[in-house]
Design brief:
With about 300 residues, this protein is an alpha/beta fold. It has one domain: Alpha-Beta Barrel (TIM Barrel), CATH 3.20.20.70. Helix content is about 30%, strand content about 20%. The chain has eight helices and 16 strands. An eight-stranded parallel beta sheet has the order 3-16-15-10-9-8-7-4. It has a four-stranded antiparallel beta sheet with strand order 5-6-14-11, with no helix packed on it. Strand 1 and strand 2 form a beta hairpin. Helix 2 packs parallel to helix 3 and helix 3 packs parallel to helix 4. The two termini are about 30 Å apart. The chain binds flavin mononucleotide. Flavin mononucleotide binds next to strand 6.
Length: about 300
């Protein structure tokens, strides 16, 4: 018998727990000819602001020994375009859609979430790594107050939809910020966003990225991500979507054991666009081989006795 991969993420029922990580799979449709989108647990869209954004100057990505650095700068076509063109098409294909909302003010986050909720997405992820223009560019995820204010605005705008707060680990104390967003109404967490990094072009004697600094992702950050999932799972009763360096089925299994209810593949999509669906198949095989009938048996199992 096939093992049961279905999970329930704060009311969002998914046929399997493998998602795409925001910003690493476009809006999903770009991959429709290459990947069976219906086989993915849910597609998490690239972060969207209210108005279109050009993003940062090039170069915006560079490979590092164990991952990559990016400084895309939230390039996106703006909420009206995504809501009218992308969401209906994904729904028509039967894909579960998690919209990632971003903004420069609390109000902008709320408005973007309201538009996606009205368009019929299945859940909202709040990208808390955006600069707050009203507060001198500090990221919203940096302080408990800012993270809570954004989460509360999105919570209110999202109606009954699950709201996942996406946190990094470098802005402030992880558990304090997680506690603040939980109190503000987050249904769960997405962990983790990229870590800050820089690469140097020796020949030109300057930083590689046009924006100077970027976000580090890929295998280099996996132990940090596992640590974050472990901590947050242990401290809160809310579901966690785990990500950071997942390149294989066994990487994904490590996240489940640390407490993730679902996992997301990010940088791995740039190496193999079909990795998400291959991990779904890999989980079925791995669970069957170990006589585990239900993936839920593994969630948090590494905490037993710890
Ligand atoms: C090119 C690129 C673009 C990204 N864009 C976003 C984004 O728009 N919103 C967001 O919340 N995270 C974004 N991320 C972060 C990923 O969703 C993910 O949290 C991070 O890369 C860790 O997972 P990974 O190691 O599997 O890539 C981006 C990552 C990369 C590599």
């Amino acid at each position: 018998m096939k093992p049961d991969l279905e999970v329930n993420l704060a009311g969002l029922r998914l046929k399997n727990p493998v998602l795409t990580a925001s910003g690493t799979f476009g809006f999903g449709l770009e991959y429709a000819r290459l990947v069976d989108l219906g086989a993915i647990g849910a597609v998490v869209l690239k972060s969207v602001t209210l108005h279109s954004r050009q993003g940062n100057p090039p170069p915006r990505v560079t490979e590092t020994p164990a991952g990559m650095l990016n400084s895309i700068g939230l390039e996106n076509p703006g909420a009206p375009a995504v809501v009218s063109k992308v969401v209906p098409e994904l729904k028509r294909l039967g894909v579960k859609v998690i919209a990632s909302v971003a903004g420069e003010t609390v109000e902008e986050y709320g408005e973007v979430a309201r538009r996606f909720a009205a368009a019929g997405v299945d859940a909202i992820e709040v990208n808390l790594s955006c600069p707050n223009v009203a507060r001198g560019g500090l990221t919203f995820g940096c302080t408990r107050g800012m993270a809570a204010a954004v989460t509360a605005a999105v919570r209110q705008a999202a109606g009954d939809l699950p709201v996942f707060a996406k946190l990094g680990v470098t802005g402030g104390n992880l558990l304090e910020i997680a506690g603040a967003v939980a109190e503000a109404g987050a249904s769960g967490f997405s962990l983790i966003n990229t870590l800050p990094g820089l690469a140097v072009d020796l020949r030109q004697r300057r930083p590689v990225l046009g924006n100077v600094t970027g976000g580090l992702s890929g295998p280099a950050i996996k132990p940090v991500a596992l640590w974050a999932v472990w901590q947050v799972y242990k401290a809160f009763k809310l579901p966690v979507i785990g990500m950071g360096g997942i390149m294989s089925t066994s990487d994904a299994l490590e996240f489940f054991l640390c407490g993730a209810t679902a996992v997301a593949v990010g940088t791995g999509n740039f190496v193999n666009p079909r990795l998400t669906t291959e991990i779904v198949a890999g989980l079925e095989k791995a669970l069957a081989a170990e006589h585990v009938s239900d993936i839920k048996e593994l969630i948090g199992a590494a905490h037993n006795g710890k």
